[in-house]
Specification:
Elements (H helix, E strand, L loop, with lengths): L6 E5 L1 H4 L10 H14 L4 E5 L2 H11 L9 H27 L4 E3 L6 E4 L2 E5 L2 H8 L3 E5 L1 E5 L3 E5 L1 H11 L4 E6 L20 E3 H7 L14 H14 L3 E6 L5 H6 L6 E5 L2
Parallel strand pairs: 1-2, 1-9, 2-6, 3-6, 9-11, 10-12
Antiparallel strand pairs: 4-5, 7-8, 11-12
Helix pairs in contact: 2-4, 3-4, 6-8
Length: 267
């Protein structure tokens, strides 16, 4: 049995896919991350990954996030968006199993209903049973049914915050394609200054300056990510944002070692 507070790892879609190309997975990074997860050897880990160039372009093409508009083509788009997410999830699962992580995939669309885009119902039966047996649940951003909109997109970041609050997580680790948060885009500005530590008040102050990520992102890029995570920070969950594309960053963050990135705490 496992009663420890969970650690929630969010692997950003920008880190494991090339957002400039549709359906382009970075398999070497996925494999290395699986190796680091195995090395961290946590019995209380829950993994959530983003959609990157798999889920976002398809969801945008069919307007899935905005809800069902009585267009039959959208039903196919909903199914296709979910399907391509299972393809990316399959690649993540391949790597985890290969590295002997006892990971089990759970499709959010099979256990979550939203209302106006926010989680309303979550059947946690399988997740709780997996945690008790120290399996590692793996979830992802997904196309889900919605009581008001018909369907929508549930971002991995909303899911992370929801799980962190529900299960009183000890921390959230977020792996992205930069070394944390910066005052401007470090990919285009070499003089971008990193934020090493932020309180909730400081985060809210800089939030308007945080731009969107490159490529199609129906969940609002980094600005959307931060907005979804704020409720968890308000509940006292600490967050580390670090570069998943850089070797050992995720391992170090999972094992409470110093890491290049941004630490966010309530106060």
């Amino acid at each position: 049995m496992n009663d420890a507070k969970p650690v929630i790892l969010k692997i950003g879609g920008s880190a494991i896919t090339d957002k400039a190309e549709p359906l382009a997975a970075k398999t070497e990074i996925i494999n290395r991350l699986a190796e680091e997860i195995k090395r961290a050897d946590l019995d209380n880990l829950i993994i959530v990954h983003g959609g990157g160039s798999f889920g976002h372009p398809t969801a945008a093409k069919y307007g899935i996030k905005e809800g069902y508009k009585e267009d039959p083509a959208q039903k196919l788009g909903f199914a296709e968006t979910h399907h391509v997410m299972t393809v990316l999830n399959g690649l993540v699962m391949d790597a985890l199993i290969w590295h002997e992580v006892p990971a089990i995939s759970i499709a959010p669309s099979s256990c979550i209903i939203t209302e106006n885009g926010k989680i309303k119902f979550f059947d946690e039966t399988a997740v709780k049973a997996m945690q008790k047996m120290t399996f590692t649940p793996v979830m992802y951003g997904d196309a889900v049914l919605d009581d008001k909109l018909g369907f929508t997109i549930l971002s991995g970041d909303q899911l992370v915050a929801y799980l962190a609050i529900k299960y009183n997580a000890s921390k959230i680790v977020i792996g992205v394609d930069t070394d944390g948060l910066f005052d401007c885009d470090p990919k285009t500005n070499p003089n971008a200054k990193p934020y090493k530590h932020l309180t909730l008040a400081e985060l809210k102050q800089i939030q308007p300056k945080i731009g969107k990520t490159a490529g199609t992102d129906v969940t609002g890029g980094m600005a959307g990510k931060i907005a979804e995570l704020i409720p968890a920070i308000e509940q006292g969950v600490r967050i580390t944002i670090t570069g998943a594309t850089k070797g050992l960053s995720i391992f170090r963050a999972l094992t409470d070692q110093s890491v290049m990135g941004t630490e966010i705490e309530k106060a």
